[in-house]
Amino acid sequence: LAAPADFPVRVNQLGYLPDGPKRATLISSATAPLAWQLRDATGAQVSSGTTTVRGADQASGQSTHLVDFGGYTGTGSGFTLVVSGQTSHPFDISAALYDGLRTDSMSFFYQQRSGIAIDAGLVGGEYARPAGHLGVAPNKGDTSVPCQAGVCDYRLDVRGGWYDAGDQGKYVVNGGIATWQVVNSFERARRSGGDAALGDATLRVPERGNGVPDVLDEARWELEFLMRMQVPAGKPSAGMAFHKMHDTEWTGLPTRPELDDKQRELHRPSTAATLNLAATAAQCARVYAPYDSAFATRCLDAARRAWTAAEADPNALAPATDNAGGGAYEDADVSDEFYWAAAELLATTGETRYRDAVTTSPHHTKPADAFWWGGTGTLGRITLATVPGVTLPADDLTRVRGLLTAAADGHLSTMAAGGYAVPIPVTGYGWGSNSAVANNAMTLAVAYEITGAQRYRAGALESLDYLLGRNALDHSYVTGYGERASENQHHRFWARQNDASLPHPPAGSFAGGPNAGLDDPVAKERLNGCAPAACYIDDIGSYSTNEVAINWNSSLAWLAAFAAERRGL
Ligand code: 9MR
């Protein structure tokens, strides 16, 4: 597949931080270094140098050179890089570069809310819509939802929460990692003194002005839903969490949330969902305590009951076959979820039973593997390594921190091996690869927090360069950010491509990204033969490369908030 060749100098189309790395990739088969110039908005040359020949980049199949203009310390907008008569897209160099993305990527979640009207005054008229799934016709849910046949004989009010992605299902497993990452973003920022930027009246949410940080208001919308998914006391499997709830069959594209007329159903409780609830509710108890102690207490109670229920029923595994009308979110190994939940409960309570569960878990000594919704061990490692006062022996905490920095070193090596500095291997371009990039960048940022070593911060920032245009396709995967950015992401309401009365996704929406599996009909038809890093198409029908999802936006929002903090270097 031919990549667009009109801009062979690939840059972060948003720009660069004055105190961050400044690198670009040139597509060229020249075997000798080439001269480059950096020009300001008037066209005047402000810096120059020569490229470094990097040769073949495996993931893209392209021959590349590295342009490193990190020696330039000026700021401004409208810069371009010029090599061999080829000019890049214009970009900024600014300390405020990521301020807008920090807000927009986090404000995504409000617009994914179920069970509340989306307010024109907050988001603009084209994005306003009535509340979805409150039992108002033609909606049938989510205030009184039955189980799938044979699963339970009662109904539950599971209103609220965030729609998962381009569909309107609500899945505890994926809600868990997304909530954890949003709340962790605040918890981390509070440690670094950057939390004011995520505080009250920083986001476009209806709770702004209530004295509680907006990021926590937003995450609470999902936490309340996650707790509603817990099987009530007195019922069989009390304390477990239902795995998910969604329509009995896939809805068409587009479908406005308030016009979905299909039946919604609860699916069998699973150990994985229960541990996602335990982990996020335990994190809630810790982080919300200074703002709302009653809510924190309710979270801790839910977390404890979930943990106990999961221990009593450790093999309730969600099957891959349960995928009619919604994603399966299957998981055959929940040992990592046990570790994560134990780590969160330990960090919050300091209690022996949770410490024992941490120290006896196989994950406590395993390498810090890349995390995603189905693999959550590293979420636990991050909490143990960074939350102050975790009651583990000092040498054990040092060892866990070492696992994270070793993983970060691995990501830096992976980045150094390719022409585009991407922290995933050539084999890593699967469904949601952009979130794999952002999550590994989060591990790099955590390593920076642990060690203070600039190479880790640089790695996290260079990962953003990839996501914002320094890549095989000359494409920014974030709506509204970059000269050539995604805008037709797969979504049932933001479906302008299919319906002129509907909007494109709002700014700050993050596409899943290249997926060499070609797991949808559009990708199969249009991307046949693509190099892994080029298996992406900005078409609403390509749900396997171009969907949005809460767990993907949470990874971008976390990273943008990290990048936006002024370091004062
Ligand atoms: O992110 C999920 C990915 O890891 C899976 O391979 C894929 C197929 O099962 O499903 C993805 O999650 C989707 C979910 O099943 C339904 N809502 C949209 C999610 C993003 O595409």
From TrEMBL:
Keywords: Carbohydrate metabolism, Cellulose degradation, Glycosidase, Hydrolase, Polysaccharide degradation, Signal
Molecular function terms from GO: hydrolase activity
EC numbers on record: 3.2.1.4
UniProt entry tagged with the keyword Cell inner membrane: no
Catalysed reaction equations from the record: Endohydrolysis of (1->4)-beta-D-glucosidic linkages in cellulose, lichenin and cereal beta-D-glucans
Enzyme class: hydrolase
Domain of life: Bacteria
Active site: H490, D538, E547
Record has Signal as a keyword: yes
Family: Belongs to the glycosyl hydrolase 9 (cellulase E) family.
The protein, known as: Endoglucanase
